[in-house]
Amino acid sequence: MQIKKLSIMMLLALSSAAFITGCGSSNKEGSASLNDVATVGDTVCIQCHGGSNADSVTGEDKVVEYQRSSPHLGDPGGCEACHGGGAQHYGVGPIPYPSPDVARCQTCHDGKTAPITSAQNYASSQHTNLAHQSGVCIRCHTNEGALLSNMVGLTGGDITPTGGTYSGQSFYNRNIGKVSWGYAYTAINCQTCHEHGAGLRSVYALYSTVSGRDAGKTVWNPSKAAAGSPTGDRQADNKNNQFNLCTSCHNMYDYSGTNVLYSGTAASGTLTAGHHNTSWYRLIPSTHKEKGMTKVTLPYANMSSSATGTNTLITGYVIRKVAPTGAATAADATKTYYTDPYYNGPCFDCHGHEAKTTGATNPTSASAATTIHTDWAQSAHAGMILSAKKVNNGATATDNTDKAMQAYSDDTFMGGTSAWSHYNWDSTLTSAGADDRGSCQKCHTATGFSNFADNPTSYDATRNDFSHLLNWTQKTASGAATGGSKKQNEVLYCWGCHKSAGSGTLRNPGAVTADYTYNGVAVTFPNVGNSNVCVVCHGGRGNTQTARSSRFEGHHGTTAGMLFASVSHIGSEFTGKDYTPPTFFAHDKINATTSGPCASCHMQAAAKHTFSVVSTSSVDGTIAKIRSQAICDSCHTGTYAMTPAKLEEEKTGFTEATNLLIAYLANTEVNAYNTNITTASSTAAGLAALSNAQYSAFQNAKLPADSPGAWAHNRYYAKRLIFDSLDCMQHGDTLTGSITLSATQLAAYPNAATWLGANATTGVAARP
Questions:
Q1: CA-CA distance, 28 to 479, in Å (whole number)?
Q2: More reliable by pLDDT, 543 or 270
Q3: Which end of the chain has fewer CB within 10 Å, C or N?
């Protein structure tokens, strides 16, 4: 009996020892890695930690934060997705990651196993800079100041009405004493914006009334999202919570969501945000607009809304504050508007956790501290709006006053022929239900482009939703000349090309099929990887077999169509002539299955989102540098090495040869028909009366305007088109394969003579 009792006691002792050992051991499960520790689930975690773990800065319960807003809530891992398995913990033993840091986040958020490259982007961001640790600056320049200020409501709203205007506006108010922190300040970090479990933090604002300050505290809600709970603690739309959180420091509105915080100039109707009203890059209304800004005198008062449908003033980036809803379209209840499956919030439409903004007072300077955003804003995809605003609105050399800053916010003239402002592109249908600009939207709006790139085979322009534009209507009202917004046009925004701006992931339409055919067969371009997004719009809208037009048959910006001319036949080709590329032509095969030729050449340099292949001289505009030199050097070596001088020679030769052709068409250089073909083609009847050869020459003379890089993208194709057109002008409809430049022409067009291969003495040149 005693032996039996002793055995039982020994068994209990060993069990207790094993239990105690397990509670403090990292080897209870025999794990060789922290990631291999078994999980126990949220319920077990919360039964101990609920109500017992307060946020070290805000004092809020971490479990409450987690259950309220965490995107990981309900995940298979739950708490343990971040903290590691809890099987060895039991309240007192080890937990693999008791205080998960950026490195821990990065194990998932690396852009491969999770769609957001947040951790590594944050590590290189401006948010890591601890620049200001005193006064009111702590509100937005420190983690602790931002956290406590957001909790107690130090965000906007100190408004005193005076004679119908506003004065005294500040992004903080007199309650700064409520923020008390007796320890060292740290830089903005994950905790600043995210509650425990990674949900976005709530932001509050104290507001004032005519009767006095501190009338109450409300949710900071400039997005005007509906309250998600009776107390308004969280908003129903987490995407708009992002806008609310970011703009608590990157101010756009006061808490009411109607008064814009910017320069404070009387002309603008904006209010101020502390001393930030003298630095254009500190407050986002300089570059960001949205339809709720109707109270502001500028930028909308001067926007064009003419009956012609032209819309030649552009203000800047238009925020998508609400994702397309997928509701029935206005014109056809059987259809629903497209929703963007990759929409990740109004701020993350163009930003990730990199938080890169420029600190340059003159962002258009060559030496400025540019970012991907200022590069884009000086590119054709943005209508070069940043440069245009600086010039057209009279910004000063330093751009560091409230009036100079206002220049970056105001609307600006983009030119009547701008690709983005020439028409009211978001007017989809006429009042009769016919196409207005819907067929243009896939290339003249970011909304249309993104929807096409996601749905190339089933794309339907009538499902494009522009409800983020001011007063947008899908269909023109009866009696009106045009529908659409009339007050806002889009340019090609980040989210047009990218699924995720933060990670840089592109939309991919695959191999692009054009809107036109050749010999009755649809023109399909090769699959060129990342460059597919370029081909969508730069592949053209017509070719040598398209119905006659007074404009270039290929449309505008037809660089991909020119590059892949063997497929597109985008130039106006002469019957019986061979346009097969020479065997050594390889521009269309550059990195064909990865980045593709477009991205490989146009996005090589550091400032890749300018899309510039070359840099030009500020003195005379000549080519000074090849920004994608390494790509050129991979093929062009030895005597064929590509240099800025060689490119300039090709460019000027192409330009001069086309100018000679234009002179022949106008009959100032007497052509074989002794007819002013330019004038004849100005009417529909005159255009129809041209012979096929005359019409081809007329069309090819438009290459410099509509495909200005033809000489570089497909040199031999461009040269043959121009040569054959000159042959037509000299010999009529029957081409000879030879042209002769007179002594006068050799002197007037020397670069053309070189480019065409003309003999310096006789002026004779053979077809290339």
A1: 79
A2: 543
A3: N
Distance between CA atoms of residues 695 and 681, nearest Å: 8
Q: How many residues does the chain have?
A: 768
| Sole residue written with tokens 């002309």 | 267
Domain total for the chain? Answer: 3
Q: Beta 505-506 vs 160-162: how paired, if at all?
A: unpaired
Enter the DSSP assignment of 319: P
pLDDT in tens, 381-408: 988 888 777 766 555 545 556 666 566 6
Say if residue 710 is in the same domain as residue 589: yes
Domain of 51 in residue numbering reads as: 37-92
- Residue 628's alpha-carbon distances to 564, 603, 633, in angstroms, are 20, 8, 9
Query: What gap in Å lies between CA 83 and CA 100, rounded to an integer?
Result: 6
Please choose, from the candidates 501, 512, 522, the residue with its C-alpha nearest in 3D space to the C-alpha of residue 442: 512
Burial class of residue 562 (count of CB atoms within 10 Å of its CB; 0-12, 13-18, 19+): buried
Please state, rounded to an integer, the average pLDDT across all residues of the chain.
81
Is the distance from CB of 601 to CB of 589 less than 8 angstroms?
A: no
Query: How far apart, in Å, are the Cα atoms of 695 and each of 385, 574, 727, 736?
Result: 36, 10, 13, 18
Q: Which helix (H) or strand (E) holds 739?
A: strand 738-740
| Three-class SS state of 200 | strand
Locus of tokens 């077809």: 767
Same domain, 483 and 354: yes
Rounded to whole angstroms, how far apart are CA atoms 316 and 633?
A: 38
